[in-house]
Amino acid sequence: MLKKYFFASCITCILFSCAKDNYPETPEVITPEEKETISYSDKLIKNINVHTEVNTVNIFNETLIGVYDKENHKDYRSFIDWNNVFVDSVVWHIDDVLHYNTRSEKNLAYRGITFNKPGDYEFDLLLYKDSKVIKRSSLTLRAIAGKDFFNVNWKTPPSNSIVGQSYSYKKGYRIDQTYAKGLHPYSYVSLYYGDQFPKQTPEKEKEYLMEVAQATYGTPTFVTTKNNQTELDEKYTQLFKNKLPYAPTAIWENSTSSIALVGVPKDAIETYFIIAEPKY
Q1: What does each C-alpha distance from 118 to 60, 94, 146, 277 come to in angstroms?
Q2: Rounded to whole angstroms, how far apart are CA atoms 215 and 116?
Q3: Counting Cβ atoms within 10 Å, is residue 93 exposed (0-12), middle (13-18) or buried (19+)?
Q4: How many angstroms separate the CA atoms of 223 and 250, rounded?
Q5: Which PROSITE patterns match (predicted)?
Q6: Is beta strand 222-223 parallel, antiparallel or unpaired with respect to 247-253?
Q7: What is the 3-state secondary structure (H, E, C) of 90-145?
Q8: What is the rounded distance in angstroms from the CA atom of residue 80 to the CA atom of residue 67?
Q9: How confident is the model over 160-191, as pLDDT tens digits?
C-alpha cells in the first residue's frame, strides 16, 4: 500500500512540475529596451510617396508633383521635415528631362514638371544614403499635343506672354514659349539663356528645335534639305501674315496652324526659333 502511494505521489509531482513549466505564474515581460524600434527617419522614409493630380499634361504646360507621407496623409498633402530624414541626397529624376539633386530646400514639397515632346515619362523620387538608393517612389506621366501650337489655342488666347517652358537636363537647354497679341497674333518657342543655361551655337539651336518640332508635327512639308531657299521663302510669305524678316529652314502645316523653323537675321543667322500663326 505504501509502495502504491509513493508512485502516485511521484506522478502527481511530475505533472505539477510540467504544468508550472507550461503555464508560468509570472508571464515574461519584454522591456522597452529589448523591443525592436524603428526611428522617425526610417518610418518616414518607408512611408514617403509621390503624387500628381494630373497625370496627362499638354506639352509646355506645367504639372506639379508632390511628396507626402502615405501612412498619415491620405489627402496627399504633407509637410516633410527633411531635416529629420537621415539621407545624403534627394533626387527628382525623369530620363532626359529632369535630374535635380537637393537635400533640404523648401521646394521639396512640390516640383513643377514640363515636357516639350509627347510621350510617356517615368518620374522617380530617389533617396540616397551611402551612395545607394534606399527608397524609390515612382509615377508615370503622359505628355500630349492637345492644343493648336504647343501650349496655345488660338481661339482662347492666353493672358500672359510667357505661356510655357521646358527643360532638358541631359542636353543642357531650356526652351520658352511666348505668345504675341496683335492684329495677327503669333507664338514662338526659343532657347533661353542664363547662368544655368549657357549659349548654344546656332547649329545646336537648330538641331534641338527641329527635334522638338518633329516630335510633335512630324516631317516638315518643306525643308532646306529637299527644297531650295526660294521655295521656302515663297511658302513662308504665303502662309504667314506677319511679314517678319526671317529665313525659314522648315515649314509644317496642320488644320489650325502654320509653323516654321526660322533663322534670324535673315542674311547672317545668329539664332533660331519656331514660330506659328493660326490658319486664316
Answers
A1: 10, 14, 10, 21
A2: 9
A3: middle
A4: 4
A5: PROKAR_LIPOPROTEIN
A6: antiparallel
A7: EEEEECCCEEEEECCCHHHHEEEECCCCCEEEEEEEEEEECCEEEEEEEEEEEEEC
A8: 8
A9: 899 999 999 999 999 999 999 999 999 999 99
Q: Which long-range contacts (CB under 8 A, 24 or more apart) does 242-245 make?
A: 242/182, 242/184, 242/186, 242/277, 244/275
Pairing of strands 173-180, 162-168: antiparallel
- Tens digit of each residue's pLDDT (9 = 90 or more) over 201-247: 999 999 999 999 999 999 999 999 888 999 999 999 999 999 888 99
CATH topology of domain 40-144: Immunoglobulin-like (2.60.40)
Dist CA 159 CA 93 (whole Å): 31
Q: Where are the domains of the chain?
A: 40-144, 162-278
Partner residues linked to 258 by β-bridges: 253, 277
Beta bridge partners of 110: 66
CA pair distance 183, 185, nearest whole angstrom: 6
